[in-house]
Amino acid sequence: MIKHLPLTKKKANLSLSTLIIRIFLICFFFLSLYIVSGQNSEKGYTAKEITAYYDKIKKEGNEASNVEVIKKLIVQSKKINDIPGEIKGLAILQVVAFNNNDYILSGKYSEELEALALQTGDYYSLSLTYTLRGTVSSILDKYPEAEADFDKAIEYGEKIPDLTSKHMQLSRIYANKAGMSEGLDNNNKIIENIKKSLELIETIPISHLSPSQKETYYYLYITALTNVSATYLHAYNPPHVKLAEPYIKKALSFERITPYYFKANETGVYFSVSDFYAKKGDYQQAINYATKLLRTKEVQENPRERMLAYKVTKDAYAAAKDAKNENIYLKLYTDLNDSINTAEKKTIVQQSRNQIERSTKEKNKYKQKTLLIVSITILLILIAAWSYITKKNQDYHKKYEALITKIKNEKDANTPLELNDQNIKSSSINITDKTIRVLLLKLEKFEQSEKYLQKDISLTSLANRLHTNTRYLSEIIKTYRNKNFTDYINGLRINYIVHQLYHEPKYRQYKISSLSEECGFTSYNAFVNAFKKMNDVTPYYFIEQLKQHETA
Description:
Layout: H1 26-31, H2 47-60, H3 67-79, H4 83-99, H5 103-120, H6 123-139, H7 143-157, H8 163-183, H9 187-202, H10 211-234, H11 241-257, H12 259-262, H13 266-280, H14 283-294, H15 297-301, H16 303-319, H17 323-362, H18 367-409, H19 433-449, H20 459-465, H21 470-481, H22 485-503, H23 512-518, H24 524-535, H25 539-551
Helix pairs in contact: 3-4, 4-5, 4-6, 5-6, 6-7, 6-8, 7-8, 8-9, 8-10, 9-10, 10-11, 10-13, 11-13, 13-14, 13-16, 14-16, 16-17, 17-18, 20-21, 22-24
Keywords: DNA-binding, Membrane, Transcription, Transcription regulation, Transmembrane, Transmembrane helix
Domain HTH araC/xylS-type: 450-545
GO molecular function: DNA-binding transcription factor activity; sequence-specific DNA binding
């Protein structure tokens, strides 16, 4: 949901999961303001000359291709005791390592930067590096560590002497905290942090800002606008499209008003605009902006950004029912997602190894003993990990088996309630027993008729069909089916398709999108989510298990 890069994160969901990680990457743009030139650095530059190279490379945006040059400039800064120059260089390397998914190396540069910044009281750099640490922890699902890092970033941010810089940095942190809260599915915290981020940036008067401050200001302001829009679209069900619209249109207006400053944020805006139009139902516009998103420089150069761009494009084509293009971008997304997940898993393992190595150096006299402990620890971790994964898979399969048992015990897809005097329940509204009986009988006939498979079914249309009012019908469904209307209809549809898959093998060859249409869903994602909610397993897993048992 929040402008991240999805994070989602490792998951292919563009809702409060799916849109998992874009806001997590906000800080990288600002850390990348510390960039150096690609010119030869063999000679001894002064601190002023080194700073000039940072400013030059900032405009060129070639930090990734100048890593070796930056390292040489850091060495030169050490020689002349230019601590600010060292900090700037380390900040660049930290960002480049992050963008390459090398979180271990990024953390190493962050630790070196922190030690130098503490010496000089550089609270701005300290706040920035802790913001990026929090981002990395969020991506790796280490949420307690992420929250601690963001709180530390706020602590240092409050100490920044310049009010404008302080508000910009704090706005950035709260935006990233919103992304972390999204990973925790904490809607209240998402909204609280998003609004705080926007309020902070709106307090800054633009008239006295320097050119570099304007770049930061517009980036943060546009980001805050798209994040508020995303909150309205994803933190509420149904989405508040009308409330989101003014924010997303204001963000997009900067493409015309200030194209120079908009350029730095075009990836995030196109991402959000495509998502907005998809929620609004204007699928062609969603595809148009998804296509623009794929052409941006950031998407082309950053694997994580590119992964989420593929997902946005895939979802836009899916909504427009263009299966051919949907499948093209689904494959691109899946392949890249698998690659990134592999890199992240290696990062977690490598982090543990580095901690062990540091411990070994500190206790050099007990090296052999330490190595033995480390070996045992690694073995236990592997055993624990294997046990956890095995148990998780077993638990998941038990849910599948429970579903199969339930199907076998049911005569029909939707078995009606046997009505007698004992199971007439009290209602919150005044409905006579006779009316209840009549409505329940009509409801049972409806359930057996499979008319719930019609895509345009609604509470009003069903009430008209049963010759009653929506209030009575809603209350009957709530009291005797223990569901609201949406869950009730979804439950009938899912139960229908589950029985079809179980009893009719031909359905197992259908695509998930075809199955969703077969049972009356208008949205691929709505079908998958409803299936998982009702049966505790995904349709993919259910079908694969049925196929395995079919060939066994």
